[in-house]
Design brief:
single chain; two-stranded antiparallel sheet
């Protein structure tokens, strides 16, 4: 009679080839193909239960074939709320049922749970917000560059045509006075600049927009286009630059603040009276902003009354204001009640105080505005389900600013084509545009070709992410670790897990993943490959292999050790992340796991037809890497039977208290040894010998047992047991 251990070895010596052989058996491969082709068609738990081929395949895969008759029971398992600790499945002691429920995505009403769709995942949302913030910085930098250029070159202009021919000067000059140079012809602007403002019939005076008259007044062009003295006075140049920052929406930027501060310091001393001061918007802007007042909302009449108040009079306008900022403003200037200046408009201390206050407050409104815009964007994009919703709501202007787009050159029709482009398709509209902003926009949003929000493209599903973290933690200071070194290891493991979970969501393709060595090291450790010496090329080949294709790289028997790593990730054969199916009862990794489970169960069943001991040994071999607690063994009948036999424990131990049983196991078995392949093999050999003794007529001591007994007290042994003497038959 062939011993249990030798028979076990015939399966386990090259397990990957054994599994490949079994999966290629016609009945197994046919069942697998049927499952893969039809599981996606299931729309309810009843569909699943009523399709006998699918249901029996699944029950076999998860070791529940003996319960296949109990469909009502299994329906309650599959429709349990997994997040509710008191739900039906969570109350069952056999962990196989919870594993089965987690492998399928049914709602409590029996329908297939629809996966959440999102117009933007969290990382892409953060990316858009970062772009929006950076766009503000870029806009301010650009405005400063153009303003500096304008100041340096406007004095060289000797004719209106020379100004018109310089696009940079022309843009600043026109835009500063509230006129969009892209919407007005140059011939009109030329006519405005050469208008005789004393002639009521001149172009500037007849156009129905006062901005044109203001523009003409800011320059010194004669009606023939020549310059009368200089193209602009120094005061008008300063006003133009100040207004350019306002016109470009950068008036609260650091660059604008630097300009205004410099201008304020150099100009405030030239003011001769309160009206002179109030006529200079740039000076008023700095002064009011310094005290937390909004220039555009503050009445000039009130402001004059405040500045000319007698502060020693409790009934003066400044003293009567409920907002004390007005009194502080008045205290910072030296105006008499008639508007004249008492000595100097500001002392050095007063000037420095205003400038310092301005430096601290100039961007408060901008920050508040940006914060409101970001909050509104987050709130809006959260509920977006279509491209149409996105482009018709408040998010539209935010997106246009973030990606540097202009509604005059990029219509909503074009935006729709961009947002419905497949960023992974080189022939898509966005990619064919060769416009970096368009391509980035398509990448940062998640709509299908019909304009509907999709499920997110992810490198790992939530389930696979949790499995990866659990496996890594088990290898690096899990529950069975102890001592100072173990504590340090757990701290490091926690830090690495935090990094992994917070970073993996930002990965959009396999190359990004492979560039981050911390992520790679973490995954290799989790899947027992940290010593496999895999190159980047090897890893790319593994991670882009289709686990559902029987002919793929990862499905070759010689590559079986890498298969778990591949299945744990969600990369396509092109290296890009795949989306999670929106309304499918299993995702790709769950389908593959189910198929693998079926092949493993078939192998164990076929082995069991020859020997129950071999079946138990193969089952323990499969489960051992995940065992971190004696209670896991006690909760699984097959694991318990194996353990009792291997450790020489009586089955009557089950009558003892559960904690006592756990102690009996851990007293003889160091659970960390199950992670050591050599010690695990020794334990299985020991089980095989004892199983044969317990289940056959033995006429002499088993050779395998003799070997084991001879080393039972060795430090390399997996357990410590008393030598067992096997009686001979008389």
């Amino acid at each position: 009679m062939t011993s249990t251990y030798l028979l076990y070895q015939s399966y386990a010596a090259d397990l990957s080839k054994t599994l490949a052989r079994i999966s290629s058996q016609s009945d197994v491969s046919t069942a697998a193909q049927y499952y893969q082709d039809n599981i996606g068609k299931v729309k309810s738990v009843d569909d699943f239960l009523n399709n006998q081929r699918l249901f029996s395949y699944a029950m076999t895969a998860y070791g529940l074939s003996d319960m296949a008759y109990a469909k009502a029971f299994m329906k309650k398992v599959l429709t349990s709320d997994l997040s509710d600790s008191s739900s039906f499945v969570n109350k069952l002691t056999d962990p196989r049922f919870l594993t089965f429920a987690k492998a399928y995505q049914f709602s409590t009403d029996g329908t297939v749970a629809q996966q959440a769709v999102t117009a933007q995942n969290t990382n892409d949302e953060d990316d858009t917000i970062d772009l929006y913030t950076q766009a503000q910085v870029n806009k301010a930098t650009s405005a400063q560059t153009e303003a500096t250029y304008y100041q340096a070159n406007i004095g060289n202009i000797t004719s209106v045509d020379q100004l018109m021919a310089n696009p940079r000067l022309y843009d600043v000059a026109v835009r500063s006075y509230g006129i969009d140079p892209d919407l007005i012809s140059k011939s009109t602007i030329r006519a405005v600049l050469t208008s005789d403002l004393s002639d009521p019939n001149s172009v500037a005076n007849t156009l129905n927009n006062s901005n044109y008259k203001t523009l003409a007044a800011a320059f010194n062009f004669n009606t023939d286009g020549s310059v009368n003295g200089t193209a602009q006075s120094a005061a008008n140049t300063a006003t133009t630059v100040y207004q350019y920052f306002n016109a470009t929406g950068t008036n609260a930027s650091q660059q604008a603040a630097d300009y205004k501060t410099q201008y304020y310091k150099s100009t405030i001393g030239t003011v001769s009276n309160v009206d002179d001061f109030l006529a200079n918007n740039a000076l008023v802007d700095v002064a009011l902003t310094a005290f937390g007042l909004t220039p555009s909302l503050t009445s000039r009449t009130l402001l004059k009354q405040v500045l000319t108040s007698d502060l020693s009079d409790p009934n003066s306008v400044a003293n009567q204001q409920t907002n004390t900022a007005y009194k502080k403003l008045a205290q910072s200037f030296n105006f008499n009640t008639d508007g004249s200046i008492n000595g100097s408009i500001q002392t050095t201390d007063q000037l420095n105080n205003v400038v310092n206050l301005y430096s601290n407050t100039f961007d408060d409104n901008l920050q508040a505005s940006n914060d409101r815009a970001i909050t509104a964007y987050k709130s809006t994009v959260e509920g977006i389900t279509t491209v149409s919703d996105l482009l018709s709501g408040t998010a539209y202007s935010f997106i246009m600013a973030a990606y540097g787009l202009n509604s005059d050159t990029t219509s909503k029709y074009t935006l729709t084509k961009i947002l419905t482009s497949d960023p992974n398709d080189p022939h898509s509209f966005a990619n064919q545009s060769h416009n970096a902003a368009y391509i980035k926009l398509a990448q940062d949003f998640n709509f299908d070709a019909d304009g509907n929000a999709k499920t997110a493209n992810v490198a790992q599903t939530n389930t696979n992410l949790a499995t990866t973290v659990t496996a890594y933690t088990r290898h690096n200071g899990g529950a069975v670790a102890s001592g100072t070194t173990a504590t340090q290891q757990q701290t490091l493991a926690t830090a690495e897990s935090n990094y992994y979970t917070s970073t993996i969501g930002s990965i959009t393709n396999v190359d990004d993943f492979l560039k981050d060595q911390r992520l790679v090291n973490y995954a290799l450790d989790a899947y027992n490959l940290k010593d496999a010496n895999l190159t980047t090329t090897d890893l790319r080949k593994i991670l882009t292999s289709d686990p559902t294709d029987p002919t793929s790289y990862i499905n070759k028997p010689e590559n079986a050790q890498y298969r778990a790593l591949d299945v744990a990730f969600n990369f396509g054969t092109d290296g890009n992340t795949l989306s999670v199916p929106i309304n499918q009862v299993q995702d790709r990794s769950q389908i593959v796991t189910t198929k693998d489970g079926y092949v493993e169960q078939t192998m164990e069943t076929q082995a069991g037809d020859q020997s129950t001991g071999v079946q138990l040994a193969l089952y323990f071999l499969k489960k051992a890497p995940t065992i971190t607690s004696a209670y896991q063994i006690l909760g699984d009948k097959a694991l318990l039977q194996f353990t009792q036999t291997a450790l020489g424990l009586s089955s009557y131990m089950s009558n003892a208290d559960i904690d006592t049983q756990a102690t009996m196991i851990t007293k003889k078995l160091n659970l960390t040894d199950l992670q050591d392949p050599q010690k695990l093999t020794k334990l299985i050999a020991q089980f095989s010998a004892l199983y044969d003794i317990n289940n056959s007529d033995v006429t002499s001591t088993s050779p395998v047992l003799q070997i084991l007994q001879g080393s039972s007290n060795s430090s390399n042994g997996i357990i410590t047991i008393d030598p067992i003497t096997v009686p001979t038959s008389s």
